[in-house]
TrEMBL record:
Transmembrane stretches, start-end: 341-359
Plastocyanin-like domain span: 1-69, 152-288
Stored PANTHER family: MULTI-COPPER OXIDASE (PTHR11709), SKU5 SIMILAR 3 (PTHR11709:SF58)
Protein name: Monocopper oxidase-like protein SKU5
Pfam family membership, one: Cu-oxidase
The organism of origin for this protein: Zostera marina (Eelgrass)
Gene3D superfamilies assigned to the protein according to its UniProt record, in alphabetical order: Cupredoxins - blue copper proteins
């Protein structure tokens, strides 16, 4: 299989007999049909590092590669997968590199493809641990914080300046003296900054992290604990740009990302059980020069909840909507906008003119 692309980035073209594709990742391969057409061939996708053979067998996907001039059906047992050696898997992952000779478009932070020359503005070491009791419930965490989803959406809370919904105090490294907690704590990032993030996996299973809104450079991964000297082994020439990366057990993965996309972006574990249990964090990237008048207005069908539930529109049977306010007594009252008042006044004024004999 000739690897040519991963997650929007053209790669150095190399042949592989197998490829470890981690949760949330995607790859593109070219396969040359040059084998003998004596019979069909198996194509197998099987689980890796699962441990339980029964689960692995149930998660195995099988396809048949059929030549139009094939002389017989596929024969024999399914081919065995590669050895479950994480060192070999990591070596394979580091062999996936950017194709700098390709003419395709590439991320262009600060006007340069040479990301090694871009100064780093923020460094975050994100440490995850095995499931633990936090607030009386089994939870997962990053830097000792298990994400607590607020009742008011983050972007709406910022748009309407609602206080107390979230805090911009996520620690840039784990605080070992602090008890793990549930919290709505966001990373306060610098707009157009260049952030270094190190994922430290202190769990026994492979993690896979995805970042919304961005592609990042995967510059390094090794077994052990990350330290300042680990940067000496970074690939600062042709690291691939992607949005999802794996972190092996007892190892670290380092990424560099150019924060040129304003918004509140989710960084999460792609393992659904870990994500559900709170192993995620949001990154706030604010462009202070962007005025609200330059932003697109909220769509009419926006959903409001939490502190903004009184702005929620009531959907009628005919599909139209009307604003409503909910009061403690449980009653609702229609809220008229300025345009509603103008239209109503104009209508009454026309009636008045018709009553005094004006013609139209």
């Amino acid at each position: 299989m000739l690897l040519v692309e991963t997650e929007g980035s053209y790669t150095i073209q190399q042949n592989y007999t197998n490829m470890d594709i981690h949760v949330g990742q995607s790859y593109s391969f070219l396969v040359t049909m040059n084998q003998s057409p004596l019979n069909d061939f198996y194509v197998v996708a099987s689980g890796r590092f699962v441990g339980d053979a029964n689960i692995r067998d149930k998660a195995t996907g099988v396809a048949v590669l059929h030549y139009t001039n094939s002389q017989g059906p596929v024969i024999g047992p399914l081919p065995n997968g590669p050895d479950e050696d994480m060192y070999i898997s990591m070596t394979q992952a580091k062999s996936v590199r950017w194709n700098l000779s390709s003419g395709a478009a590439r991320p262009n932070p600060q006007g340069s493809f040479k990301y090694r020359e871009i100064p780093v503005t923020d460094v975050f070491i994100l440490v995850n641990k095995p499931t633990q009791l936090i607030g009386g419930k089994w939870r997962r965490s990053i830097n000792g914080i298990s994400y607590l989803a607020p009742t008011t959406p983050l972007s709406l809370a910022r748009h309407f300046n609602i206080p107390g919904v979230f805090k911009l105090d996520f620690p840039n490294r784990i605080i070992t003296t602090r008890t793990p907690k549930l919290d709505t704590s966001l990373i306060n990032a610098t707009y157009k900054g260049f952030m270094e993030i190190i994922f430290q996996n202190n769990n026994t299973n492979i993690e896979s992290y995805h970042m919304d809104g961005y592609a990042f450079f995967v510059v390094g991964m090794e077994f052990g604990i990350w330290n300042e000297n680990s940067r000496n082994g970074y690939n600062m020439l042709n690291a691939v740009a992607r949005c999802t990366t794996q972190v092996f057990p007892g190892s670290w993965t380092a990424i560099l990302v150019s924060l040129d996309n304003a918004g509140i972006w989710n960084l999460r574990s792609e393992n659904l059980n870990s994500w559900y249990l709170g192993q995620e964090v949001y990154i706030s990237v604010v462009n202070s020069k962007l005025a609200k008048r330059n932003e697109l207005s909220l769509p009419d069908n926006s959903f409001f909840c939490g502190e903004l539930s009184d702005l929620q529109k009531e959907t009628k049977d005919d599909g139209s909507t009307s604003h409503k306010h909910t009061y403690s007594a449980g009653t609702t009252k229609t809220k008229m906008s300025l345009i509603d008042y103008i239209v109503k006044f104009a209508f009454l004024y026309l009636i008045f003119l018709s009553m005094i004999g004006w013609s139209f």
